[in-house]
Predict the structure.
Amino acid sequence: MRPVAGRQRSHHPAPWRWPRKATLATVLVASSGASAETPTPSPEDAVSLPTLLITAPVQNPGGLDDTGAGETVFDQTYVEQFGQADGTLDGVLKLVPGLQFGEDSESVEGLTELRPQSVSISGGRFYENQFVLDGLSNSNRLDPASDGDGSGIHGVAGHEQSLFLDAGVIDRLAVYDANVPAAYGGFTGGVVDATTRRAGDEPEGRVRVSGTHAGWTRFHVLTRDWDPDTQTEPPEPPDSPDFKRYRASATYATPLADGLGLLASLSESYASTPELTLDQTRNRIQRNRNLLFKLSSDVGGAGTLDLTATWAPYESEGFIENVRDSDYTLSGGGYGLKAGYEHLGAHLEQSLDLGWTRSDSSREAPNGYFPWENTRSRQWGLEADVGLSREGGYGDLDMVEDATSLGYSLRTLPVAWGDVDLHHEAGVDARHSRSWFRRDDTLYVYDDAVINPDVQCRGYTTDCVQEEQYFSSRRVYQADDVTVALNEIGLYGETTVTWRRLTGTLGLRYDYNDFLRNHDLAWRSRARFDVFGDGRTQLMAGLNRYYGAPLLSYKLREARAPYYTEYRSTEQNIVTDWERAAGQGDYRYRFDGLKTPYSDEVALGLSQALFGGTLTLKLVRRDNRDEFSRTTTETQTDGYRYYLMNNEGSSDYRGISLGWNGVYGQTLVNIHGTWSETETRNADYDDPVDATASSEYVWYRGKRIKYGELEALREDYNRPLVIQVAVSHRFSEAWSGTVSGRYRGGYDAIVETSRTVDGELVDTGNGEVVRESLEVYEDERRRATLLFDASLEHRYPIGDTELVAGVEVRNLLNDRVYTVSDGDSGIEPGRQLWLTLGLDF
């Protein structure tokens, strides 16, 4: 969470304005002015002059800020030129050195995923970033690392952002990967800070419709290797997916009075993917809507007040594959209200933000899961050749977070003391969050169906079929309603001293929350040296510590009731009543005495003016310690086994990036390359790390070793070499286009397989000796990829309105993306076409 202090460097963002046309005569009069001696031209003297396109200067995103902070700032022009037809900011984020997308971003699933793609910044995990929207946190604290399709027992598919905003409302995007100012806290990765647009001095509007579908997409269909020695038929190739996806948006901004303006934006994204289940084709559907109103007003000539209301619900309709009557609906996103005030005085700049958001991660689904054996009345699994005849789902869940946030910052304008310029920055941010987990009805998940043609169900019609079969065990997840609260506060201060060609910043940030109850003090220090005094060659250095944020999902897990198991049998073919098992060792969570994860950073850099642009070289080292992981106890005296969270996780990041950005009139050029390596001892906060428990041993390269000693290179977000080249050019008033290429180097990953092997004989703790089962890990080669994208846009004027048509081609050369491992069956997306139509008025 962060107040607007980091954003205030831009002062008042420029009013939202698309490129407008002006005649050369207008430009000449505006630039030269009119005097009494200037004769008034007669109608006979009038000449027809060509129309010129007048646009605001484009800010070069490269280089360093005035204190050496590692920020990359994209103004509206970059968002417009490199933003994608699907309404995401992925194309802009790819311009940032040191930022990596996950492997799934290029997969078939990515074709229809409406939620923002996850990113890693400077080696941090994707959920360890801080997302800021208009000065307040947009980070989700409800189990962001939860994956899957959302049909699980306890969870709904999580995401690291609370609200999924359309890129069409973004005016400015800043990404921090190193030397992050003290105004930002609650992260060990990086910061993504977005500012929404404001209305300008003239009414302006925009309408866009864009889309794609399977007919505009090429696929690479891959079939697993066939071993003729098995005497089986060669495997059938998988079918190419059929899908469709579109985005529609409308935005209008208008002044309401002098110094008062309103912006309204509405957008919807939709994706539909047919999938085969039980020999029937059914659609998975996603919808993401955005509705934003922003009222902006000048206050007293030196202040600006913004009032923003946002509604951004996400919805997904799906089903559990090959399970009958398993339809479910997921709800995500949420809504929020925010008031922001900025004041620029004679000696002091102040910012105040107050906001409230509600984010939702909920599910509606059938209550009760039944894996039936195939019998006379239960044989749809046999007919579809999928094994058991499964039906049902895991019931309704509500996971909601309410958050009220307050941020205040002040910044003094520089004061000269001889050769020394001095200014200070300080602020406070506070956040109160309430989260709840609600399961309205008790959920029964059945196991171990027993076929008995003589069974008498005795009224048990739900989990027993007369004279066919019955279930002998079930897990019981009780109806539950848990509410937890979290209070956080952060205080920070920085002092920046400029002496001749040297600028140095020393800062501290203090954070406290009432869950972990740790007093975290992080130093922030950075320096910038202007080598020749002309601003062309600058050196940067920094030494910083960042503390992570607590997750409310930890508190919810600790307070949640554990499941228990019930068993039954038959007596003379009559089912007995369900009885609760004793001493079954059900799981509970415990989070006592945890430290706050932190990251220590050393950063060095160079910024050099070159060829009319800016070359930036940066070296970043991160040592991440006290990361959350967990271990598992044996059954305790209270009958439970415990997941004990600990701080035994750790990771290390080393990165070198070299980038160049140039702005040549109507041409934008971005070139960068990053070499990096991330080593980690645990994948996320649910990954076990324990140096002593025998249950945490694995099998790797023919040896039994401790999981914590695996020293695995991170499986995802860890391409060792990434090179990006992107060019955008406006050819004329009518035509503009972009082209980009991205190389991602191959690497060897250590991955978990689905196999197990027998290990050693171990004592279970109660005197029983059993042979352990070890999960098998193995090396896997991830192939390098080289992909090119291109887009072209044409504008056709119709009076004061412009008709806009665009085409975007992804994976232009139809290359493989290598998301399917060698020798496996699967489908990879190839060339894809997006079309866009719109109006600007």
Summary: The domain at 4-36+47-576+585-840 is CATH 2.40.170.20 (Maltoporin; Chain A).
